[in-house]
Amino acid sequence: MKLAIYTAFTFLLLLVAGSCDPSEEVVNKPLIQIKVSPGQGTTAQVFMFDLAGSDSRTANSSKIFSRWDWDGNGLWDTPLTRMTRYEHRYYAPGTWNARVEMVNVEGGSDTSGITVPVFRGYTAPVPVLKAEPYQGHVFTEFLLDASQTHDDEDSLDQLTFQWDFQSDGIWDTKKLDTYRILHQFPAEGFYQVRLQVEDPSGLKNIATASITVTLSDPGLAAQFTYTPDSVTDNTPIRFDASGSKDLDNPDQPLSFRWDWNNDRVWDTDWLTNPITTHVFAPGVFAFVKLQIRSYRGLVNEAFQQIRVYHKNIPPRANFIVSTLAGNVNTKFRFDCFPSRDVESAPSQMFYRWDFDGDGQFEAGFLNELIAFRQYDDPGIFRVQLEVKDPIGDTGSCYKTVFISNGSNMTGMFEDTRGYGYERYGTVKIGTQWWFARNVCLEFADTSSTFIYNNKYENIYETGLFYPLRQLASLCPPGWRVPTKNDWDRLFSNYPPEDLFNALMPGGISDFAASLFGKGTGWKASQAVYEGIYRYGYYWSATKPASSEQTSWVITFDGVNRKVLQGWDSNENKLYSVRCVKDAD
Q: Are residues 547 and 422 both part of a single domain?
């Protein structure tokens, strides 16, 4: 009791003290004006509450903020906002006393209210129809599900459901209290199922669901093979569909028919034998379609695109070497995989080698893609590869291998990045290990893969060419693009007058510099190349601090047999790259 008296006394003192301050400003309350439209209505209507006629009653700002208690229960149903128009719907009938509080920017606030008579109203149900699955065959039982249907006044159990499965305007069922139903369609076609939902007051609404019915049965596994694997025109080809199955009824028989050109015209009647033959006319591709049919009349299909060859074309021999230069201690790796045949894969062909260029093959044809060779004596050797396809036609190609009288240690590095493994011969010169072949790392973006004259077959001889912007990611981990200092260390191992010869293929260094020219261009399709077999250009990673558009470049001048180096503008240039690392 004493605490209450003391608290009241303190409040009065503060009030008196506050009222004695002549500088205190009077805070005006906002003027609230409410309009509601309609003035009365039903539970099916939305009421518009309009405060646009209200006034903040402040000189500083016309901004006012308001919030609503729609049912007058003392709890605010909206936050304070600057909205002047609100929509609200009452779902229960009654006389509702809506209250609004309005606040201006000076903190002045006031409340007001308005009475809204609301009578019982009725709204039509909102049907929601789903089909599961939405496509199937004539034996599929489709579940039509309207369980998500809702009505503002009535529960789901108080509604009735009527179905039109054919969408022909004729109801196929009576009014049911079932909101889920199974249905099987008698024929293939596109169906727009209609559902009408009605509430106890007679209000109704319609929803639809689309269903596609076919004769296709995913439980039928259609497949076929053909022999021989290499298809040529005017040759009987055996097609075998005996691997096809009815997974749901494996003991039941199947029938088969074929479309040899995929022109939507079946070229055979229904056959009971899964094996048949066909002769193709000359052409590039045949598009063969198989359709199988079950005992229930359901079908499924398989399709294959088959290459039809006019005649056997001899294979085109090609091979790559880990390096084209080395010494008697170098183990060379020869890879036939670049060989190509129209009818056969590289693994299906046969190979034999003449490593010494003496016209004598070291062995007969072998089905081996990789061969290794170590030479006993220095020299220049014209290596021949002969390839034979399964038909017996052959093709040959040649590459020159240089064996020096040098004694540098050599090795091989396997780069697993890019689209395929690249194997580079390596050579230890002084205190450095160098790639003995130009970098050949392809990028996913083909517009940034630069090949001499845009001919892919050149990649195995010349390597790739690179703009300066690609140098950072070219060398594999542990290796680097050489700097000016790296090149200088390499050159210091040989007298200036012998440098060019020492670094060329067959020279004592086994570095095997190449004279594959250079290119210019931003995109591979537009690049222009020049200087092959006369000059070789190599990037360094060194750039002057004064210019990002200049780099230290090494040039092997095959015309004057000199090694040149110096600063060069790098914009738009495409040069070769070697990788280097320090010896352990």
A: yes
